[in-house]
# Entry
Amino acid sequence: MPARFLGFVAIGVACWPCLAGPLRAQERPSPQARQQSPRLAGFAAFGEGRYDEAIRQFRLALERGDTWDLIPGLIETIEARRRLGVIAPADTHRIGIIWVTDIYRVRFDGGRAHQRDITEQQKPPWQIQLGALRATIEAFSGGRWTLAFDEVDAVATYPEGSPLKPPNPDHLNLERYFLENTDRHDTYITFSNTTSPQMGLARRYPVVNGVLYGPHRGMVAVSYGSLSILLHEFFHAVEWVSDGLGGPVHGWREPGRSSFPLWRGTTEFDYYRWHFATTLRDRVWRTMNHTNRWRLVPSADRSAAQERILAAYAAIPLTARQEARELADSARRVQGANPARAAELLRRALALSPYAPEALLPVYEEMRERRPDAESLSVYARRLTDIRAVSAFVLWDSLATTVGAPLGAWWPEQLTRDGVALEWDATAGITAAGPYVVTLLRRTGRTAVTIEWVALLEDGGEVARQTRRASVSHNWPDQPYELSLPAYRVGARYTVRAHLTGVNGTDSHGIVLLRRK
# Structure
């Protein structure tokens, strides 16, 4: 494996494989068996809300000798969902289903080899299982959380010798799709017959393959769509977005089981049901949705910026983009001991990948501070602005002469899980009518803070507000809000007010900055 690939494999990805062994034969019924299977009929009825029929089918499966240990717990779950009736969920977790239908391997000689992947015949049984997954989550959460799905077909193209698996998102033709849906989808489930092992947790999806990535989203990658597999991998996404459950993964079996002494169940299915009833019961469900916590900074130029970047990379292969990332990483490691060598590595990285943020940002900042070059600075600043518009690469201090004057801070003792409005004096910074930017910047703390809105007040009366739900956390430390003062009044007292909510804890501390736009 070429060394230049090694550092790239983990970029933007946080996941663990589920090495639970091969699927049991009873989880892979033949096509003929599927048509006559009471189990599949039960799943279909469950997902469609026909709960009496679902229970009847699963009981029929037991009568016919089906020994699948999930069935008794599943019947109880269907009964629980039936008792809920019509639900009004507190929030909806939106999932993009990605069907990898074709795979192309680009050979070293430049030729292409084609492989058919997911077929139209494979989709319907797995769509049934997705419906059952939604109904299961509704039952587990007491009707407070639900799932919604939409689907897209994808083609994977990967270079021969790549360490990334064929259906890796960096190989898919979905860059525009991921950007268009960045504020819509909380999780992606990718189906490919080549996926092994099954995986689940979270990652950042590419808006420019191998170069730029959006905010963290739930990640599930599977080769088979049974309820047990989908629930297993989706629960890993739940573990990540809930900031952990107080113990290791796979806690239904040893050694992890000892971390949950209050759980008395025997099956993996019951373990998930128990966590929803206990560990997750008091969570604010909207904090379990990635789009409520990690979002791109609003930009009217987002699509145009992506098109400019994609055009720049039209003839740059993925291998060159990966090599540039490794060069930038090498520059970071030698910067302290050998600045000249670091500068050379960064120049080489930009020659390969002109928008590589890990190289572009340090070159821009060094040039701005030590070797002013107006023409190059303008080019680099434009690229950084485009990067900021489309990706979650943090650039909060790069393009402004100042981020703003500090107004004050929020502290752990001020935060609550129910939300609180905090206020800071901004009189000294408000000097005229017009637009202002308020930036909330996290400094310390393990947990995140959700911002509902930020407002500007004049003598206690609100004169401007931006309502935008966003979060500051270790993954995304800053959020800017724009406020426009319609008229300035001499002698008035101006304050900034923001509504903040502690997410799964209240240990966050940060500062509030104000500047003229």
Notes: The radius of gyration is 25 Å. Residues 1-17, 19-35, 396-402 have pLDDT under 50 and may be disordered.
